[in-house]
Amino acid sequence: MTDHDSSHSVKTSLAFEPDFSELVDLTQVMSSEVDFQAAMLLAHQVDPFSREARRAFVAPRAATFRTIRMYQMAGGDDSSIAVFRTMAEAKHQRIR
């Protein structure tokens, strides 16, 4: 299954609402190999969430933090996406 296939599956699911809030825990991710072109593809073609969804990514390591910031910029500096270094910071600032 490709990223596009899984995104299409999520988008067409009756249980999925594109404006759901999302908290993504990347604390166990050690590295990232996403380049800007891939980030653009993810942001514009694969991502099933709407701009109304509040999304928080927890990325304590520099590589994953930079990847999410690149993804955020690829999507047009989307203010619905925020990146944090700790889970406590994400929960306090974003998920209220």
Walk me through the structure.
α3 links the parallel β2 and β3. Strands 1-2-3 form a three-stranded parallel beta sheet, with helices on both faces. The protein is built from four helices and three strands; from the N terminus they run αβαβαβα. It has 96 residues and is α/β, with parallel strands linked by helices. It has a domain at 27-93. It is 43% helix and 12% strand. The radius of gyration is 13 Å and the shape is globular. The model has no long low-confidence stretch (mean pLDDT 82).
Summary?
The protein has 96 residues and is an alpha/beta fold.
User: On the 0-100 scale, what is the average pLDDT?
Assistant: 82
Count of alpha/pi helices? 4
Binned strand content: 5-15%
What best-fitting shape do the alpha-carbon axes yield? globular
Going across the biggest sheet, name each strand in turn: 1-2-3
Please write the string of helix (H) and strand (E) elements.
Answer: HEHEHEH
How much helical structure, as a percent, in the residues?
Answer: 40-55%
What is the tally of beta strands? 3
Question: Measured on Cα atoms, how large is the radius of gyration?
Answer: 13 Å
Structural class: alpha/beta
